[in-house]
Fold these 3 entries.
Entry 1:
Amino acid sequence: MTSRQFPNGQYAARRLPPTAWAVLGLLSFPGERTGYELKKWADGSLRFFYWSPAISQIYAELRRLEALGYATSRRSGPEEPRAKRRYAISEAGRDALAEWADSPEAAGPPVLKHPLVLRIWLGHLAAPDRLRALIEEHLARTEAELKEVRAALARTEDDEQWAHPRIALRWSELRELAELELARAMLADLDRLAPPQGGEQGGEPDNHDGWPGP
């Protein structure tokens, strides 16, 4: 059933936050999962292109989804040493998620907050070596992240049920590669900066009239 078949947009009235849809989306794949397993899965996939909610937030969303009838849960049996609550998506939850995913509403622009670029923007107050060290740390962190993305991508190969997650992870791989290129370009830009008189990079800019431009 597609969103165009839902009478009177019965699910559209439930304005869930994006994180709730993300958690429900994790449940939309085959199998039942505990909140801990959902957190591990989010850390290994969702965080590469959206974010990974805290475990407390995942459980809060699971309670919300279950109260709405979008998810079900059950206690594990005596065969497990510790009782666990496992969650699954309900038929109503799958219909609601399908309507949200198939909505004509625009996804909206991505939110960009780049702490490193903010520090570089304030580079007139920092030593050149400090700025270079920050970029080198960012490069190392991004290279490690790229390895994790590629490991997650490899786990989706040869299984058609992961076809769309594979596309998202492929985008994540390309984004990490672009991030490496951009960081290396920043290093090159710093190297091209001529040090001011006296050889010091820090200090306030000479122009106190505001941002340059018309």
Entry 2:
Amino acid sequence: MDVPVNTLHAQGYVSIGCEPCTRPVLPGQHEREGRWWWEDAKAKECGLHKGNIDKDAQAAAPRSANGNGSAGAPDIFESPAVVSLTRTGIENLLRLENRAEPWLVVLYAPWCPFCQAMEASYVELAEKLAGSGVKVAKFRADGEQKPFAQAELQLQSFPTVLLFPGRTARPIKYPSEKRDVDSLLAFVNSLR
């Protein structure tokens, strides 16, 4: 099992707190004594300080291709019919007031089970809309992109589907939890 272990365990510290928080446990004490959230003690096991994570393992961990999310989860919405937008690309799309064609964009996080659940229907929709004049795209909005997406793109939860119509500057947020092909297609066709 690849569970990160605090290096103080090897020195006789049974508590699994982080390095600045960990102290030896006296005989007869529970290993968490004085560290429960309801106890009024200064030493809490926050788990944030060095000693909990092996830096070599962290450096060797794979990073996402565009560097804006958590590593580990494979990317989703992979299809030639779905355009992958960068931060610059979505910012340019936001700035355009008269777009040549409407854009449907999903704001997603690859680790999100709801995004994963809608992947097949979104890819199918993209293939149906190919050649129709509507561009279908994705923008990974987790990690360092999340504050931007919350401030500029109406992101409150994953996935968020936005339509950038050709005639208006601001995107229109898809208002439903129904993410099947027919529902998404009706949304696009009503606002084209």
Entry 3:
Amino acid sequence: MAITKVLGRNMDSIVVERETTVQSCLRYMKEHRYEPETFLPLDYIKVTPINEQLRELQEPKNVKLILDVIKYDKQYYKALLYACGNALVCDNDDDARKLAYESGNQKNKVVSLNGTLFSKSGIISGGSSELKARAKRWDEKHLDTLRLRKDKLFDEYKEQQKKKRREAELINARAQLQQLESRLRYSKTDKETAEKKLRILMEKDLVDLQTKLIQYEPRINALQASIDEREKLISKLRIEKNKIEDAVFTEFCKQIRVANIRVYEDRELQAAEKRAQERLEFENQKTKIQTMLEFERSRDTAGHVEQIKQEVSTLEDALQKCQKNEKKYRKIIEDLQHEIADIKDRLLDHKKKIEFQEREIAECTKRATQLNKDYNEQRKRLQLIESDIEKLRLERHNYYRTAKLNEISLPFRGNAGSMAAISLAETSSSDDTSVVSSQTQNNSTTTISMTQSSTTTTDSSTISNGDGILTSQQDTKQIYDLEDRFELNFKRLRDDLKKINYEQIDKEEKLLIKQLSDIEIQLQKHLPQTSTIDARSREVKTTFELTNAEFERARNAAKRARQAFEKVKKERYDRFNALYEHVSLCIDDIYKSLTNSQAAVACLTAEDAEEPYRGGITYNCVAPGKRFQAMENLSGGEKTVAAICLLFALRSFKPAPFFLLDEVDAALDNTNIGKVADFIREQSASEFQCIVISLKEQFYSRADALVGIYPEPGDCITSHCLTLDLNQFDERENIANTRS
């Protein structure tokens, strides 16, 4: 909520590189009527440098710059500095108010963890339900949703690019079709004009023919009367002929089962007559058309009509061809669209499965991280409890030792302890002994061990006892174990003393100490002052001073050892963390560049977040187009690419002038060989010089220069080398056929 409050209206701002990009975006949004947005061009915005003194604030505790608690890429530093400025974040409202308005002449912009903002101008704005709703956008689920939306939009963008390439071909085909349709319209217009002229001429000829027909009508009527008389005669003769035919063909008619021969003749001859009639009609039509054509030729219009017909025919053929091509292309496009739809469906199914599995993996990882965190907290609590126990055991031993030195008899229960068994040796607590041990953990094949085993360093501080004998840590443990078996008998205590609390115990202890001191003073007054007692007292005092001085020296030595250890530990953590942070940030980009795919993912995860060098570093890779799986389940080529990616990431931390690779392409296929070779060529052009030992043509054919080693047989086999500069060749594809 604190980050959301400080960012304010810049929470949804869009960061771009140049101001020209902002202008293009605004123009596009205006054309498509999108909602207004805020843009932050990195080359235009002006920012105030960070006040480094704010990073050194000690009071109140846990004060940090907002910019320091946000994880971001370095390229967006200027935008975040513009949005956050020198704003500070505190644990609570009281600390934030003091830091904002009660820190001298300087006023600061401070926000508390609950979202209350104290501005320099004195305005205080608190959190609200709207702020809480906006702050939820930082949740992991929302980030996952945004990532899924990003992937979906990227897929849609690729589909749109494919459609644009198809649309260019379709636009060309449509342009050709429109051109042909335009030519066809002009040809049809010419054809209609020619037909109109031809129809006028034919109508004029028809009128002439009708005039001639009227002139021939009297002759036609006379001929028709003559024909009618002859038909009557023919009919009479036909009847007689039929009678004769019936008599002659009676048997034949019975065989073919017809009434008479005329039925047979009518049936057979009818078809022949029909064919003859049709033939005659065709001949008449042919003659008519030939006559018209001759007439038109005489008028010198046949050539023009023929030319128009040829053009119309040519255009119709071209139109039909274009229509066929259009149908063909449309069918191809429809098939491709169906295939694309099927592929999209399958891709969505696979993506849903992958997303479900990734969510499960993320939940498992989250649970494992939480369990590991709980385990570390419980372990710290256990160490604190053990430390408290050691302090209490030390206090108990000091009480026993003091009682014995003062010849105070303690009431033990039965055989559970005696005054003679109490040791007079002084012991040190665990806080005064520097003991550090770290264990080296072995990881499975899915992790790359980056741990460092640290040896147990023990400052063997020895402490003198009352008899001048030094006790080690092992002796101290034995003394504590022996005293653990002691049981005091508290029956002699009054009931009211058994029920008192620790505060009352402290009071009673001080009172008893004071009474004891008074009694000792009284004893000193009444005891005889002999020289023996004085000598013994001086001896005991000298021994005590020597023992105390030795104890102080041992304590100081232990503290110095601890300080040295903490310094080495911090330096070790800083160096390791610098390497780990650098590799974690750059390994994903290197893996994407190496595989030439934005869908590839590579990440490092520390098993122990507080002391990463004590545990393992888990390295996981997701190859392009594949689901997440353990490293041991990847193919040989994928493992090789992942290992090369890790090598390049480690090299980028402290670059060396040369990089030597020995047959890294042995397990790679041709596709991965090309990707690795292209990546090495790109990096060697600007980052480093690379020497690769390879036996595959697909790999070494992409190098800048070749060095070949070959043996020369003889009495003593000697090796020789050949060199070849590949930069002199223009076409890289021909290098594989070149022999040194």
